[in-house]
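Let us work through a complete example step by step.
Step 1: write down the sequence.
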Amino acid sequence: MNVEHEGFQESRWGDMCVSMAAEATRRCGQSYDLYVQMFSELVDLKVGGLPADILARAIARAERWDYLSAEGRAKVQQELADGGYCSHGLESNCCPMDCGDSTVWESI
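Step 2: predict the structure and record it as tokens.
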């Protein structure tokens, strides 16, 4: 079924997912967890306000690119924190975004 709703074109949704996945890939620094977060947030921005039936189909297609709901992303972030990893999915003192102890670099 091809549906359009206030600027959302279901027929172009796959192409939009490819573009959003490419953007997230460029920005994630090769961290899968960060990619999933970025891609999923981009999807959420695009599908906000869609009727439930269109939203469900859009999310189902986005899952092909590893979309996670806000609840799923929160669970991953909690699992990362519980495991001693930063929000980027890396060991805290190895994160290039300085999530860990920056004094490690001062001694080098």
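Step 3: interpret the result. Residues 22 and 39 are 9 Å apart (CA to CA).
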